[in-house]
Amino acid sequence: MNNKAIGVFDSGLGGLTAVKELMKVLPNENIVYFGDTGRVPYGDKSRQTILKYALQDIEFLKSLNVKMILAACGTVSSIIEESNVNIDIPFTGVVAPTAATAASATRNNKIGIIGTTATIKSGAYKRELLKINSELQIFEQDCPLFVPLVENGFIEKDNKATLIIAEKYLTGLRNKKVDTLILGCTHYPIISEIISRVIGSDVKLIDSGKEAAMFAANALSFSECLTERKTNGSCTFYVSDTVNSFSKSAGLFLQQNVSQKVKMIDIAKYSTNLEIINDCG
Amino acid sequence: MNNKAIGVFDSGLGGLTAVKELMKVLPNENIVYFGDTGRVPYGDKSRQTILKYALQDIEFLKSLNVKMILAACGTVSSIIEESNVNIDIPFTGVVAPTAATAASATRNNKIGIIGTTATIKSGAYKRELLKINSELQIFEQDCPLFVPLVENGFIEKDNKATLIIAEKYLTGLRNKKVDTLILGCTHYPIISEIISRVIGSDVKLIDSGKEAAMFAANALSFSECLTERKTNGSCTFYVSDTVNSFSKSAGLFLQQNVSQKVKMIDIAKYSTNLEIINDCG
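^ Those are the sequences you sent over. The predicted structure of the assembly is below.
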């Protein structure tokens, strides 16, 4: 059991922020990663479709016999959190660990949350924060263009277009004087310098991918499920589009050549027993 | 046969530019539209994945017994054009009709092409233009952020972010002094005012959705396949994500309430006999 891999997934590349952190804190663990690059992005799709895709992603990782699954995607985590589905394997999303860190970081009890449209619509982060401390004041904003901007490389800290769009999204939160901002999508840390410049350098940014990775590491340690391996673990990547473009971006992000470790799969073949849920947009 | 519907498809909303034109020039025809909203966008995915999705879309429309299929999507049209697949039903994409109009419109023989990354990579428009006139000078530029900008409503003619991004994409083409610009993606006419402002108001913009619709109308007329119906035809919409968001946007775009005419389907169930093609990115 303990030497099985940790399964991590995201709609695309964003979840690699969690993988990078896992590799740092648990270097001996094997990791299998799935990026649903053939259906990316998730954040502007409906709750019903996101849930269907997420359960297929989980089904695929379960078929690889992993010991734990980490949904390193703010959108998936939010939708699963509010859907109350039963995943019969140790599982964590990014919402609970991130909310816990944010609630403990704030000094003025004003927390901002940014994420995809689906994430913000779900209200998952807000519910989790208020469960921890009902006196928190929460301000939310969806930022639907941040993922395409990141995916298209508009990420330098003085990128004019990204700065203007960040101004449009973040001015309201800045005016509310939040002292803590949850980056509720695992893509957003990649433009944290721009976000910081707009929201104010005194606002603490909480990186959901990193928080989830730390939480997963602690959970495995606490339940005595860490690997007994004494040498470095391996990382294997699966994607639902072809491997080339992912290999290149992932290699750059993780600073290692991963091209021999990426495989393409047909995710639509993984069925779920999900019953049709009422369409809520 | 003649009273069967015309099938139109796109990755999402863009193809409605062709539907709007068809409704204008052939008001008595029935139209069935499929928007692959559960897997949108196509333009930054690989050739192999786009082709698989396109053939599933075609398979679905064939199951509705249409008399003709119009791929109202620059990305799909480009990939199908270069893939030489055999579609055993009258079919047109946007590439050939658009190239013909552009070649006839230019005065200085300098034509620009903009489209998604997959469209530009395929070289389909360029090949088609040079087939018509080998003396044309062709300049190409992919504009991967235009689709998300349009889908997220960054479309007012003085939108700062879209203007800056358009400057980045179009300055090279402006410097080449093209007098004709192919809008090779059916989303782009929605920001034609911004494009025109950046490229210069004297540059003629060619709308690929409109050109394809005109071509389809002429082809049906020429082959005596127009409907004999004397009253207005109907339009039915199918999508692969839930219907709400599509209904709203399509209603606004077509200026009619379509909410009772939109149905959700599971597109992944439509299989194709496509053999695996070499991964070219």
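Chain B has eleven helices and ten strands. The interface with chain A takes residues 37-39, 44-49, 144-145, 148-149, 151-152, 154, 160-161, 164-165, 168, 240-245, 264, 268, 279, 281 of chain B (CB under 8 Å).

Shout if you want it in another format.
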